[in-house]
Amino acid sequence: MKKTPPASPADKDQLHPRNRHRGRYDFAQLVQSSPALAPFVRTNEFGDTSIDFADPAAVKALNQALLREFYGVDTWDIPAGYLCPPIPGRADYLHYLADLLAENNGGKIPTGRTVRVLDIGVGANCIYPILGHREYGWRFVGADTDPVALNAAKQLVAANSGLTGAIDCRLQADPKHMLVGVMKSGEVFDATICNPPFHGSAAEAAAATQRKTANLSGNRRAAPNLNFGGQSNELWYPGGEEAFLRQLIAESKQLPRASTWYTSLVSKKASLISAHYFLKQAEALQVKTIEMAQGQKKSRFVAWSFLTEEEITARLAKK
């Protein structure tokens, strides 16, 4: 099977202009910052210095190096079998979210701990709160239904002094809910973020994981790697992404003033069409689709609010 060359600098230049990971990785600098990455760095068949992105240990070491070099996070790890996220793409979501908040704030990005963001499905990696706090100083609540993942996230926060007091991890005791049971009475957020499960069943998720591992390794028969697969709640939800978004939108309608903006990544175009239909039914006053480009992969998130433009502006003026 012919292998596809890694993303070129031109591909990564499609990332958000403030994204720290545009262009090729400087592996020499990353190794200097994080020597544990050194055993995984090699010259690939295309003559480029890189790592084997089909090797979960290599990907984790790269993440550890990126977090140390660019975000001052010295300690980061995940339990075996949990999702190991691509940091450049995760950072893009946050940068575009910052632009969204700036739109009703005179073009200025609101920063600091007065800005509060809820991460629905924070995961063991806690990556969005870590990046969001280190980039913009925002304060986060990270919610998850998995006690093991939540405990791992708490340990990451405790292990890095720069995150102290910035990230609160909460257990969602009822897996049927996203917001209800996590948002406290009277609590107000500036935004919610979410990277919903893409798949509708465990079998569908397993097949997708096997395809991803095979594509990365160039081996059609490669066994699925759990580090790329993630746990069940990270990968699938009954009814898939569309059903997840429908439930999230329904709960946001129940809590219309609890967050200035509600947002969620949307992987599938069909899910985006459905989300806009559900949002119309929910009578959201503001609905935006934010397009993002990450190399050959096109991504997007949908954002909605039950507040008027004037109400949004008034809230952000207090930050």
UniProtKB/TrEMBL annotation:
Location of this chain's protein in the cell: Cytoplasm
- Species of origin reads Hymenobacter ginsengisoli
UniProt cross-references to InterPro entries, sorted A to Z: METTL16/RlmF (IPR010286), rRNA_lsu_MeTfrase_F (IPR016909), SAM-dependent_MTases_sf (IPR029063)
Name the job this protein performs. Specifically methylates the adenine in position 1618 of 23S rRNA.
Keyword Nucleus in annotation: no
State the UniProt keywords alphabetically.
Answer: Cytoplasm, Methyltransferase, rRNA processing, S-adenosyl-L-methionine, Transferase
List the gene name: rlmF
Q: Which reaction does it catalyse?
A: adenosine(1618) in 23S rRNA + S-adenosyl-L-methionine = N(6)-methyladenosine(1618) in 23S rRNA + S-adenosyl-L-homocysteine + H(+)
Parts forming coiled coils: none
Q: Which residues cross the membrane?
A: none
Q: Which SUPFAM superfamilies match?
A: S-adenosyl-L-methionine-dependent methyltransferases
This one is known as Ribosomal RNA large subunit methyltransferase F
Which stretch is the leader sequence? none
The similarity comment for this entry is: Belongs to the methyltransferase superfamily. METTL16/RlmF family.
Q: Which CDD domains match?
A: AdoMet_MTases (cd02440)
Enzyme Commission number(s) from the entry: 2.1.1.181
